[in-house]
Amino acid sequence: MAITTCLWFAADLEGALERYTSLFPDSQVYSVQQAEGYALAEWRMNGTDFRAIQQPSSFRFNESVSLSVSCADQPEVDRYWDGLLVGGGEESQCGWLKDPWGLSWQIVPQRLVELLSDPDPRRAGAAQAAMLTQRRIVIADLEAAADAG
């Protein structure tokens, strides 16, 4: 048995597949089947299998479902942040963004998780307060806030 995430795109499924597979390692498109009015695709992104439907509908992505990317360092945060926003994405708060297709992503540096889990509640609280002011997470700013806390 396997559970696979299936995403519904209103348009430009091929553009989304090109973007995602170019950004994430261990990615490839297995198949794209097109028929009149819709398309079906299967692909791998960072070692995880996905399916997609493209068909015009009133269904839209919203923030209740997102893909979370755990990043090792600031250059990785910046790479995924910039790569997912290009072409019409939208920044949100606290490391969240929407890509040009409306899919929500969380770009989370591992250092954020470490700082929020600091055993000193003042450090953890200061890091959280700093995070709440950010759009793209900037690790150096979180560390400075924790150190000042």
Walkthrough of the structure:
34% of the residues lie in helices and 30% in strands. The protein is α/β, with parallel strands linked by helices and 149 residues long. The protein has two domains: 1-59, 2,3-Dihydroxybiphenyl 1,2-Dioxygenase, domain 1, CATH 3.10.180.10; 61-149, 2,3-Dihydroxybiphenyl 1,2-Dioxygenase, domain 1 (Roll), CATH 3.10.180. The strands form two sheets. A four-stranded mixed β-sheet has the order 1-4-3-2, with helices on one face. A four-stranded mixed β-sheet has the order 5-8-7-6. α4 packs across α5.
Bulk shape: elongated
How many structural units, i.e. domains? Answer: 2
CATH superfamily membership of the largest domain, which one?
A: 2,3-Dihydroxybiphenyl 1,2-Dioxygenase, domain 1
Oligomerization category of the chains in this entry: single chain
Instruction: Summarize the main sheet.
Output: 4 strands, mixed
CATH fold naming of the largest domain = 2,3-Dihydroxybiphenyl 1,2-Dioxygenase, domain 1
Tell me the distance between the termini.
Answer: 48 Å
Strand content: 25-35%
Strand order, biggest sheet?
1-4-3-2
Concise description?
Helix content is 34%, strand content 30%. By secondary structure, the chain is an alpha/beta fold. The protein folds into 2 domains: 1-59, Roll (2,3-Dihydroxybiphenyl 1,2-Dioxygenase, domain 1), CATH 3.10.180; 61-149, 2,3-Dihydroxybiphenyl 1,2-Dioxygenase, domain 1 (Roll), CATH 3.10.180.
